[in-house]
Write a structure and sequence with these properties.
Layout: H1 5-18, H2 22-35, H3 40-85, E1 113-117, E2 122-126, E3 132-136, E4 142-147, E5 163-166, E6 169-171
């Protein structure tokens, strides 16, 4: 083995970190620390792993904060829209430009998933004489707003974790509640 290999790999890992490829740098540092523990590069890689974990944790916290701010902006625009139109819009594009300058994206550049729905598709209506009839309700009075994380797949942890808003509130359970049936066709 070339004795310069650990140092060369370490320098490449440092360069990856400088380029903002922190996860790749972490993976490479772990490999260097594991395969070359007795070398200077292996010892330094072990020390650097702690700092990389701190950087990744701070990055995750910052991106989660940005994500929540963006989703709250959309939720607030949806509330204002419903206040004026008496129901939520068919799509988020209806919010631009009156309620939002542009449709926000996740910190990873992914669009949010939006699904309006009718909470109570069939409602009871009392007549003047007290008789009760049923009618279909077609006004979108509920919605889901979802970010599937950096990987755009359901589930995951860290930056890949999903965030759900239901009717403007953060939904903490692992999946969304079922949409009532039957939903109107618009």
């Amino acid at each position: 083995m070339d004795p310069r290999l650990p140092d060369t790999l370490y320098d490449e890992a440092v360069e990856l970190n400088k380029q903002g490829k922190t996860l790749e740098a972490k993976s490479m540092m772990q490999m260097i620390a594991r395969q070359f523990p007795g070398t200077e590069a292996g010892k330094q890689a072990s020390k650097d792993l702690y700092l990389i974990d701190v950087i990744l944790k701070q990055d995750l916290q910052q991106r989660q904060k940005e994500l929540m701010e963006a989703m709250r902006r959309v939720a607030n625009a949806l509330i204002r829209y419903k206040g004026n139109e008496k129901e939520y819009p068919d799509s988020l594009t209806a919010l631009v430009p009156e309620y939002l300058e542009k449709i926000p994206e996740s910190p990873w550049g992914h669009p949010f998933l939006y699904r309006p729905y009718v909470k109570y598709p069939i409602v009871d209506v009392k007549g003047k004489r007290g008789n009760v009839t049923q009618k279909f309700n077609t006004a979108f009075d509920g919605y889901y707003l979802v970010c599937l994380g950096v990987d755009m797949r359901p589930g995951g942890e860290g930056m890949a974790s999903d965030v759900f808003f239901v009717d403007g509130e953060v939904h903490r359970e692992g999946s969304l509640p079922r949409i009532p049936e039957p939903q109107p066709i618009k």
